Amino acid sequence: MALATRTDRRPSFARTVWDSSVGKKTVMAVSGLIMLLYLVVHMLGNLKIFFGAAEFDGYAHWLRTLGEPFLHHEWALWIVRVVLVVAVVAHAVAAYQLSRRDIKARPSKYVHKKARTSYATRTMRWGGIILALFIVWHVLDLTTGTVHPDFQAGHPYQNVIDTFSTWYGNVIYIVAVLAVGLHVRHGFWSAAQTLGAGSRTRDRALKITANALALVLTVGFVSVPVAVMTGVVS
Amino acid sequence: MKLTLRVWRQKNADADGAMSTYEVDGISPDMSFLEMLDTLNEELILKGEDPVAFDHDCREGICGACSLVINGDAHGPERTTTCQLHMRSFRDGDTIDVEPWRAAAFPVVKDLVVDRSAFDRIIQAGGYITAPTGAAPEAHATPVPKPDADFAFEHAECIGCGACVAACPNGSAMLFTSSKVNHLNVLPQGAPERETRVLDMVAQMDEEGFGGCTLAGECATACPKGIPLMSITGMNKEWLRATRKAGKR
Amino acid sequence: MTSNATDAPYTDYAAYTTGEPVVDTKAPDGPVHERWDKRRFEAKLVNPANRRKHTVIVVGTGLAGGSAGATLAEQGYRVVQFCYQDSPRRAHSIAAQGGINAAKNYRNDGDSVHRLFYDTVKGGDFRARESNVHRLAQISVEIIDQCVAQGVPFAREYGGLLDTRSFGGVQVSRTFYARGQTGQQLLLGAYQALSRQIAAGNIEMHPRTEMLDLIVIDGRARGIVARDLITGKIDTYFADAVVLASGGYGNVFYLSTNAMNSNATAIWRAHRRGAYFANPCFTQIHPTCIPRTGDHQSKLTLMSESLRNDGRIWVPKAKGDDRPAAEIPEEERDYYLERIYPSFGNLVPRDIASRAAKNVCDEGRGVGPGGQGVYLDFADAIKRMGREAVAAKYGNLFDMYQRITDEDPYEVPMRIYPAVHYTMGGLWVDYDLQTTIPGLFAIGEANFSDHGANRLGASALMQGLADGYFVLPSTINDYLARNPHKDEVTAGHPDVREVVAETEDRLARLLAVDGDRTPDSFHRELGELMWEFCGMARTDSGLRKALERIPQIREEFWRRIKVPGTGEEFNQSLEKANRIVDYLELAELMCLDALHRSESCGGHFREESQTADGEAERKDDEFAYAAAWEFTSTGAAPVLHKEDLVFEYVHPTQRSYA
């Protein structure tokens, strides 16, 4: 007489993922890893600035011709941009919704406050917001040139030097890069846990990788404005 | 020892609460934290005041009833349950803040007592193996590799006290839920319901209004039974596996 | 039935009368190993389609209640279940450490159902029913199968098979365990089965709801009165049968290893309504508990008796020797168990070890605060096995000890003292686990059980689960099949109204006294009295003193109790005070039972009845019976009904450990 306690009817895969807090974290992990991969490539590309204007501008041009003649001009770039936009939007929307849920789950705070309890959470949330704002500025600055003081299409080398010749350009950029470092440091390890890739034996390796990635990205990205400021690149 | 206590007082679920200050004297360092509260309550009763309500039962660290946030830490400064915390962990003259577990899914019943029935509903959603009495095969019919048995035990140690939720900045019940998922999913006996178990339990956990996991790790630090943070990773893996499998059906 | 009249006419409580013998009419005859099958076959069954029309109330969610509720619901009955805790997962079964016995004979070491049966009857000092004990031994093997199927993570060996150990001085290795948390794991197994049935809608679960009285209509148990502990609302619940699985009554002693809120109200109220209470004086005192540190002590903590395998127990030879242990030279130490019982040494049974500790402390040779402790010394074990080996074996216990006492047992000897741990007595039940009130069943520690006068280690879990998973779900069918209730009981029934009014009146009176003493102060006073006169060693004069004192405490209680707040709210003081009302009556019956049983047996030691070398002396000619007491009124002499015990398979012998 034991009665069945479950039904087999289940919502679709996408519904299950998006409706679940664990699923949304998965979306964040996957989109985060896509962005991380992009950042690594982006950082390596940036370093070409140390080889002079010709190489840097040539690299930028090559990005537009990538995949030709199979792909039309700039198609590859647009594919990357679309993937990135989808990743950013998915990451941000999931983060927003999860944060809303988290804040709702703890409506009244403890009277006795402990600083450490929300270090990682706070870093991720505020870091994420900083990065979202930065991305907008960064695109308007060096892609569209809307907010750039003296934008010249097709001359990225000069555009970069111009941006880092202003104090606010440097401040915005360096703050954002530090945020990237902190975000990646917890985010990479966190994504591994969310995707179930962590284990007791692998934990050390994952943490080292996360720290290394964070460090390499930070140093790599920061090296450009520092180089401009110090005159190594001009 | 002489102590100043600041205790959260709240008449009932609907009332507003606030911290009230009490002085207690003659506290022995050998007293457990709850015995110290007993002392306070004896005084309050004789003064005709309402004693402080708090949950407690076995007072040996296993039933999971006691649930106090002491100076901002779930179960206080030592890694144990409140009932096993002794006053020697404090100093004469200290001021101690005592608050209930705080989470939307754990509404306050009175003073320091909260309603943790959300945990029961998570278990009801799938935290079991369907094995009606009488239907069991011989116990030795299915050997379980020792590492798996030890893994199951380590997660089965959860006492359901809710310190993980109380400590989590997001009020998340991931550690509680994952400990049961891991306990049952690693065992061959739990295999037939492996997917439905994790999907249903996670869905119920969300339904109850617990927050999500940001892997801050506070839950594992507060857990008096030492359930590891990796437990959550294990559940995520099970959940993804189950979601993929369910998607194929 | 009168209420707790404070002005009951004074009668000599000790002048009890002896009524008709109580007979177990359900007990099958024939060869002992065929009786359970026979009874199951003879029992009437309820048509599966009709089961959902029957409601069964289960009070308590420990091993017995949890397993019974789940199993009855699986069978198709409608179950309404109660626990005072905030969740059914917290019942005190959870605190059992050692393990669970089962006659699996996985070790091929000569174990069998018959040997477990034999050990249990003998260990119980020949005060248990052979039929019941044999059934328990038979079912023990099924329990392990059931629990493994539920995912209980028992300890396993590298081959993946279940590990067992020998426990409590038994010569075979039949104890299954899950580190030091066997009770927890078994309880969670039952809780999960229960949860599954709650989710399926077969069980209506009422946590934080305490049973305050039993509803008996036309001589049958038809429901309970219970209080919602959050709102304070008193409600009635009706059913076709009521199962009490509310545990033991060790908290009469105030200090015990029981959970703080474990209480006797459910069984005592049932007793007042007509259920006989059997062998109330049979209490088990566990020798290896952590001594109390002062008057603030609220409960005692037990440490596994496996510690006695390697630890040596001693006290100083001289009275009042208050030097630190390390400064007492070897020749000034008295390893008294090794001295008195050279062949068993530190491994003598629980009752003997406990009593010996009391004796040396009474001589003024106890150690620690108040002189209420003896040393359990691991120095020799550490020398012999090395610190690491000792840590591997007992590390978690040492940690627990250190956390509580702030002393490092690797450096200074542990201090231990006996504490009340388990009660063998309880509601009298027949072979079907039915009390003398038709339709009222008692299972687990709540009944007078299969342990006789003394329970063996790792047998409590076995009995609770045997009753809940296997025995009750079979035998209750017979009652329900024979008593199909056509009449609906409602809250308007005059008998129901009367019980509710009595309950409300009792709580109202507790609140109205507004005296100058807290509930705990009375509980502590009663506990100290019981520990002194009805504890490890009992005497005629001591018990009479207690019987004189208890009514005085009761009278003072109703005059001076102070319960703050109201009844219409979450009020832990009111809960406590109401439980003490019942302890104050139960304590009296325990003392009377101990007084009337002028023999020593198992956990019951009467100083008048001992052999020349100080061992317990049973008197089988006079006392080979279970004493079932019938309630008359508060403070008035009860009626004794004897159930004669017959031993066809295991012949009574005097225990000897010298």
From TrEMBL, chain B:
Keyword Iron assigned: yes
A GO MF term: 2 iron, 2 sulfur cluster binding
2Fe-2S ferredoxin-type domain boundaries: 1-102
Protein origin, superkingdom: Bacteria
Pfam family, one: Fer4_8
BP term (GO), one: aerobic respiration
Assigned keywords, A-Z: Iron, Iron-sulfur, Metal-binding
Domain 4Fe-4S ferredoxin-type: start-end pairs: 149-179
Protein name, as recorded: Succinate dehydrogenase
Organism: Streptomyces ruber
UniProtKB/TrEMBL annotation, chain C:
Ranges for domain Fumarate reductase/succinate dehydrogenase flavoprotein-like C-terminal: 523-657
Active site per the UniProt annotation: 350
Cofactor or coenzyme needed: FAD
Organism placement in taxonomy: Bacteria, Bacillati, Actinomycetota, Actinomycetes, Kitasatosporales
Alphabetical UniProt keywords: Cell membrane, Electron transport, FAD, Flavoprotein, Membrane, Oxidoreductase, Transport
Start and end residues of each FAD-dependent oxidoreductase 2 FAD-binding domain: 56-461
Species of the source: Streptomyces ruber
GO biological process, one term: anaerobic respiration
Enzyme Commission number(s): 1.3.5.1
MF (Gene Ontology): electron transfer activity; flavin adenine dinucleotide binding; steroid dehydrogenase activity, acting on the CH-CH group of donors; succinate dehydrogenase (quinone) activity
Record membrane topology: Peripheral membrane protein
Leading EC class: oxidoreductase
Protein name: succinate dehydrogenase
